[in-house]
Specification:
There is one protein chain. The protein is α+β, with helices and mostly antiparallel strands. It has a single domain, classed as Roll (C8orf32 fold), CATH 3.10.620. Helices cover 30% and strands 17% of the residues. Strand 1 and strand 2 form a beta hairpin. The longest helix has 14 residues.
Length: 210
């Protein structure tokens, strides 16, 4: 187990229980979605635990911190879409030489991936058919190479201020194409039942008013 900064040790003690990717995912699923109603945020794992909510990148960093606590590398994967859709960020992990992903999302899709994928590209492609707009247009285009959070000092773990530099550096990091221009032109739109399922959400935006 890794040692976290002493100022955060008490709050981050929960990581002792999050001893596997499945347990980390189960914990993330209990956190409401951060809808950023007060403006864009990029909270550190410590701030996420204090606030008790997270969006995809914040959840990915929290999951990466838990993996790092147990001796794994804290790796993120950015799934980049076309300009009119949102990117999605997941946490990478490996078991028996295969890749899996931990994912914080509000939707019925783009979720946890079991460690059954031979490489990162294969894992990223597993999200392709689920990644579409309400009009059915499939939008996933590139994925980042594994982004190691150990490039930073401990601030990404414990900073009380937003760590927007993580989002910016991840966005600027090398990305690889998933499909060719020729393939894009031939894509079939998601059908009605897929679109309907894609609109199912776990947390409603006005939950605090209920």
């Amino acid at each position: 187990m890794r040692k976290f900064p002493s100022t955060a040790a008490k709050k981050l003690r929960i990581f002792k229980k999050l001893s596997s990717p499945a347990r980390i995912q189960n914990f993330l699923d209990t956190l409401p979605i951060n809808f950023e109603e007060g403006g864009r945020t990029c909270r550190s794992p410590l701030s996420v635990l204090k606030k008790g909510e997270a969006h995809c990148l914040e959840g990915a960093m929290l999951a990466a911190a838990a993996l790092w606590f147990h001796g794994e590398r804290p790796l993120l994967l950015d799934l980049r879409s076309v300009y009119r859709d949102d990117d999605h960020v997941v946490t990478l992990f490996r078991h028996a030489g295969r890749w899996g992903a931990i994912s914080k999302t509000n939707h019925a899709v783009l979720r946890y991936r079991e460690p059954v994928y031979k490489n990162v590209r294969e894992l990223a492609m597993s999200y392709f058919h689920e990644y579409f707009m309400d009009d059915g247009v499939k939008t996933l285009r590139t994925h980042s190479t594994p982004f190691n959070l150990l490039r930073y000092d401990a601030s990404w773990l414990t900073d009380g201020k937003d760590v927007h530099y993580v989002a910016e550096d991840l966005d600027d990091s090398p990305h690889l194409e998933l499909i060719s221009e020729n393939s894009i032109r031939r894509l079939r739109r998601a059908d009605g039942i897929e679109i309907k399922v894609g609109k199912i959400v776990e947390w409603k935006k006005n939950r605090h008013l209920a």
